[in-house]
């Protein structure tokens, strides 16, 4: 079966999906994206992702081409056409195609592109072993709350992680961890409390973060919403990350220093199980 993508109103084999040379996403990184997990053929936390998309588009003044219902239909149809039962749906909206000039072009239609990636999220070897992270300076702009397709700082951060034998980079500003290259970062104190950096323009409001913090509250796990330093993270009982493409993943070392006993910790394992239960329940409710 050929891979089908969605581009500007059509479902096409990927080989036929072409974006014009003068697309502002290509020239300026002038666009917004989203990434949503699919589990059992159903979208996880779709409403919250679409709400974040609406907000990001509004902040950069790109008109939203679809209603929430239309977006959902497109996502579901693309998953269906690709036989996607578990994995990821990526989509982006750019300001469109126009002669290169910085100011917004007039009467330009946004470019919409969407594709799927199959991936085992629940049965993940990384969840069993935990992952290593390194720390890097946070080189990004000041509106990280907007899910912009400008990802050069994250590309460099994650490549540095790979070259150091790690799987994620934690970005650091003024001594405090902001977030991972493509994930939200957390630690667990020796008293068993979760520490999460509060939302601001310094980080992306992670949808998995939002769901997980609500679930952890229900489970009676205490939360301290405050920034934490690399030193505190290295001394923490546990560390973990969240993202739509990984749910919850244990972090077992930072810059080569083991966290806790260097194995995935009990609070992280519990949170991962709680999150998977919630995502599975969403799927059953949709069926
Ligand atoms: N922070 C950054 C910088 C990210 O790129 C991502 C994933 N796109 C996240 C956090 C996690 O967000 P979510 O849980 O919505 O996938």
UniProtKB/TrEMBL annotation:
Q: Where are the transmembrane segments?
A: none
Q: What is the lineage of its organism?
A: Bacteria, Pseudomonadati, Pseudomonadota, Alphaproteobacteria, Hyphomicrobiales
Instruction: Indicate yes or no for the key word Transferase.
Output: yes
Q: Name one GO biological process term.
A: branched-chain amino acid biosynthetic process
The GO terms this record gives for MF are: branched-chain-amino-acid transaminase activity
EC class: transferase
Its annotated pathway reads: Amino-acid biosynthesis; L-isoleucine biosynthesis; L-isoleucine from 2-oxobutanoate: step 4/4; Amino-acid biosynthesis; L-valine biosynthesis; L-valine from pyruvate: step 4/4; Amino-acid biosynthesis; L-leucine biosynthesis; L-leucine from 3-methyl-2-oxobutanoate: step 4/4
Q: What is the name listed in the Swiss-Prot or TrEMBL entry for this protein?
A: Probable branched-chain-amino-acid aminotransferase
Q: Which family does it belong to?
A: Belongs to the class-IV pyridoxal-phosphate-dependent aminotransferase family.
């Amino acid at each position: 079966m050929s891979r089908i993508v969605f581009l500007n109103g059509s479902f096409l084999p990927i080989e036929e999906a072409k974006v014009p040379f003068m697309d502002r996403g290509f020239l300026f990184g002038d666009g917004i994206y989203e990434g949503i997990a699919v589990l059992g053929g159903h979208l996880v936390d779709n409403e919250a992702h679409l709400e974040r998309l609406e907000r990001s588009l509004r902040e950069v003044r790109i008109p939203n081409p679809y209603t929430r219902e239309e977006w959902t239909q497109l996502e579901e149809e693309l998953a269906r056409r690709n036989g996607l039962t578990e994995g990821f749906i990526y989509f982006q909206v750019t300001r469109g195609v126009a002669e290169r000039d910085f100011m917004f072009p007039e009467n330009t239609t946004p470019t919409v592109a969407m594709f799927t990636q199959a991936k085992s999220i629940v049965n993940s070897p990384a969840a069993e072993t935990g992952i290593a992270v390194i720390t890097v300076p946070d080189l990004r702009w000041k509106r990280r709350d907007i899910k912009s397709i400008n990802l050069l700082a994250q590309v460099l951060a994650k490549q540095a992680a790979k070259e150091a034998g790690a799987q994620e980079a934690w970005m650091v500003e003024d001594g405090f961890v902001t977030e991972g290259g493509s994930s939200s970062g957390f630690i667990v104190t020796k008293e068993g409390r979760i520490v999460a950096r509060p939302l601001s323009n310094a980080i992306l409001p992670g949808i998995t973060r939002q769901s997980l913090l609500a679930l952890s509250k229900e489970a009676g796990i205490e939360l301290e919403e405050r920034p934490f330093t690399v030193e505190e993270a290295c001394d923490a009982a546990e560390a973990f990350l969240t993202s739509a493409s990984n749910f919850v993943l244990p972090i077992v070392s930072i810059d080569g220093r083991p966290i806790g006993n260097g194995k995935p910790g009990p609070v992280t394992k519990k949170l991962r199980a709680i999150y998977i239960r919630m995502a599975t329940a969403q799927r059953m409710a949709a069926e």
